[in-house]
Design goal:
By secondary structure, this protein is of the alpha+beta class. Helix content is 35%, strand content 17%. The protein is built from 4 helices and 3 strands. The chain has a 3-stranded mixed beta sheet with strand order 1-2-3. The longest helix has 13 residues. The radius of gyration is 18 Å and the shape is globular. It starts with a strand and ends in a 30-residue tail after the last helix. Antitoxin component of a type II toxin-antitoxin (TA) system. Belongs to the phD/YefM antitoxin family.
Length: 98
């Protein structure tokens, strides 16, 4: 999978387009501040995979029955896409008139 790094200030201007790229192409976007990765945009499938990995992970610092009695994490409904990705086109002025 492709991965792109974007400064947070730039990503803020392009947020809707970045969300669509992630949702439709599976591309990952790392959001940076002063060159350091602060957060990431990932597809719904990647998020579900991460959540399932975390839910199945045991705390290896505990031993015996305490480790086996960890509470279960709630399962979330799968995420759905609420926008359509439309690449290209002329740049639009900022504001609500989109």
């Amino acid at each position: 999978m492709n991965s792109v790094e974007k400064p947070v200030t730039e990503a803020r201007k392009e947020f809707a387009d970045l969300v669509n790229r992630v949702a439709y192409t599976g591309e990952r976007v790392a959001l940076t501040r002063r060159g350091k990765v602060m957060a990431a945009l990932v597809s719904a499938e990647d998020l579900e995979l991460l959540e399932s990995l975390r839910a199945g992970r045991l705390d290896l610092t505990q031993t015996g029955q305490a480790a086996a009695q960890q509470p279960e994490r709630p399962q979330h409904a799968p995420l759905r896409i609420a926008a359509e990705y439309r690449p290209g086109g002329p740049p639009r002025p900022p504001g609500f008139g989109r």
